[in-house]
Design goal:
With 561 residues, the chain is α/β, with parallel strands linked by helices. Helix content is 25%, strand content 23%. It has 13 helices and 25 strands. It binds adenosine-5'-triphosphate (ATP) and magnesium ion.
Length: 561
């Protein structure tokens, strides 16, 4: 963490609770956990939870555990476990020795299930999932007791042991808590504790043919680890009475408390692992780390620094009411971070040849260019200049409207760090398109200033035609075309048709040939970029992380963005 990320930056109701618990000595120290299910990659919503849980541990000198909630082996994979560890570390957090798995506790959880059976507080139910659903009741109607609810303790123990031994097929029976079928809170209507699942688990292999539910595993895992503040998102608020019921009815070593906060939602963005999995599976994206994905891996590949994600999460804050954050707020956090850290370079995305007729043939020179306008310590570099250059196609108009100050016939502009040039004429192809600008330059304006003090209205970026390097650049637009993807019913129908735009004829200043993968650079006037993981010396590929300005107002008004 840098000095700019001091803890006092984020006061919120969770931090108030922690502080008051510590002050009143209700807890000896803060112990939190981040509990991902390894059934997909982490997304920026998870980053909010990570920053909160690990952040609390840092700020209050406690600790935060990383615990895999690996209770559903049909959906969980080692690839996801590895990716989650990599992503949490990359975000800047460290669980030290405290790496746990719900599966570490399978034996203890099983013993506690038998404890409930012996206490007459759990029973084996033979109803099918459908029958159970039909008898659960609704928000306004109570549920009905299962005919198996009155089974004796011995029969329950025998059946539950045989479930564990693998005697019954998937779905034949479940173990349920015996709480209250008429409870107002549906979660208390005899929730399922164990289901039969003949599936190989990444960690426990074939040892188990029954697996605990999230509800039965989560609070007890918290209690085993001595978690003090078990922080989750609002949809678990209704589960809290059940969370407490287990802790009150089992001989657990500690009694953690659950607190709920609002999950992160962002416009034009989907933060549901189920949908993200579908995007990957249906190949709408190239993978979990596609730079258009809101995953940590995708954002990293796109060039978003971890510090920008942490800063964004801090700006959003932690609240108890659900809301949706404008994606412009995320991009603005990314821009603010990159503006400070990214060295400046020049790259021409859509090249148009510019020939300086009075510049000597065969000559070239190196011109000094600042690496950062506000940071002289970032130093300078030397950029090759010559008779033939490329400039941005958009920076020229043959018949400019009134407020267009860039190149047009007869107009003088500054080439950044170089010279003043004046457009003297154009060369057109057979189709009548301008393919080359013929210019003159003022040799006395070397460095970009005329000795007579005359002014120009525009400063353009450029590269040397002979000494620039070719590259592909990928520009990204949001994956979804509406701010609330899926609100119309079919989320895949909301996929934007042009979320990826490839520019295959880009020319970059030669220093960019050595850019390290993922390292941020600003292409002057074009935005922030980084070399993609697929970039090779003989085939450079850059991602645009974000443009220089907020293009959202324009995009929403129907422009190109
Ligand atoms: P999804 O709905 O995307 O499948 P999940 O909640 O099922 O997410 P988990 O792996 O169980 O995924 O999440 C781990 C932790 O991250 C949980 O504590 C969860 O509350 C939190 N989390 C998940 N999504 C968000 C979000 N959008 N904002 C904040 N926290 C989140
Ligand atoms: Mg979950």
């Amino acid at each position: 963490m840098t000095a700019g990320e001091a803890p006092e930056a984020g006061r919120d109701f969770i931090r108030d609770i922690v502080e008051s618990d510590l002050g009143a000595k209700r807890v000896a120290g803060v112990v939190t956990r981040f509990p991902p299910e390894p059934n997909g990659y982490l997304h920026i919503g998870h980053a909010k939870s990570i920053c909160l849980n690990f952040g609390l541990a840092q700020e209050f000198a406690g600790r935060c555990h990383l615990r895999f909630d690996d209770t559903n082996p049909t959906k969980e994979e080692q690839e996801y476990i590895d990716a989650i560890e990599r992503d949490v570390r990359w975000l800047g957090f460290d669980w030290g020795a405290h790496l746990y798995h719900a599966s570490d506790y399978f034996e203890q959880l099983y013993a506690w299930a038998e404890h409930l059976i012996r206490a007459g507080k759990a029973y084996v139910d033979d109803l099918s999932a459908e029958e159970m659903r039909a008898m659960r009741g609704t928000l306004t109607e109570p549920g009905r007791d299962s005919p198996w609810r009155t089974r004796g303790v011995e029969e329950n123990l025998d059946l539950f042991r045989r479930m564990r031994a693998g005697e019954f097929p998937n779905g034949a029976r479940v173990l349920r808590a015996k709480i209250d079928m008429s409870a107002g809170n549906i979660n208390l209507r005899d929730p399922v504790l164990y289901r039969i699942l003949h599936a190989r688990h990444p960690r426990t292999g074939d040892a188990w043919s029954i697996y605990p539910t999230y509800d039965f595993a989560h609070g007890q895992s918290d209690a085993i680890e001595g978690i003090t503040h078990s922080i989750c998102t609002l949809e678990f608020e209704d589960h809290r009475p059940l969370y407490d019921w287990f802790l009150e009815n089992l001989p657990v070593p500690s009694h953690p408390h659950q607190y709920e906060f609002a999950r992160l939602n962002i416009t034009y963005t989907v933060l549901s692992k189920r949908v993200l999995t579908e995007l990957v599976r249906q190949a709408h994206v190239s993978g979990w780390d596609d730079p258009r994905m809101p995953t940590i891996a995708g954002l990293r590949r796109r060039g978003v620094p971890a510090a920008a994600i942490r800063d964004f999460v801090r700006r959003v804050g932690v609240a108890r009411a659900n809301s949706t954050v404008d994606i412009a707020m995320f991009e603005s956090a990314v821009r603010d971070e990159l503006n400070l850290t990214a060295p400046r370079r020049m790259g021409v995305l859509r090249p148009l040849k510019l020939v300086i007729e009075n510049y000597p043939e065969g000559k070239s020179e190196l011109l000094e260019a600042a690496n950062h306008p506000d940071d002289s310590a970032a130093g300078t570099r030397r950029v090759p200049f010559g008779r033939e250059l490329y400039v941005e196609r958009d920076d020229f108009m043959e018949n400019p409207p009134k407020k267009f100050y860039r190149l047009s016939p007869g107009r003088e502009v500054r080439l950044r760090y170089a010279y003043f040039v004046t457009c003297r004429g154009v060369v057109k192809n057979a189709a009548g398109e301008v393919v080359e600008l013929r210019c003159s330059y003022d040799p006395a304006s070397r460095g970009g200033n005329a000795p007579d003090g005359r002014k120009v209205q525009a400063t353009l970026h450029w590269v040397s035609a002979a000494q620039s390097v070719p590259a592909e650049v990928r520009l990204y637009n949001p994956l979804f075309s509406r701010p609330d993807p899926g609100a119309g019913g079919d989320i895949m129908a909301d996929l934007a048709p042009n979320s990826l735009e490839r520019l295959s004829d880009v020319r970059l200043e030669p220093s960019l040939a050595e850019a390290a993968t993922g390292a941020a650079v600003q292409f002057e006037r074009q935005g922030y970029f980084c070399a993609d993981i697929a970039s090779r010396p003989d085939r450079l590929v850059f991602n645009r992380t974000v443009g220089l300005r907020d293009s959202w107002a324009k995009a929403q008004a129907g422009g190109k963005g």
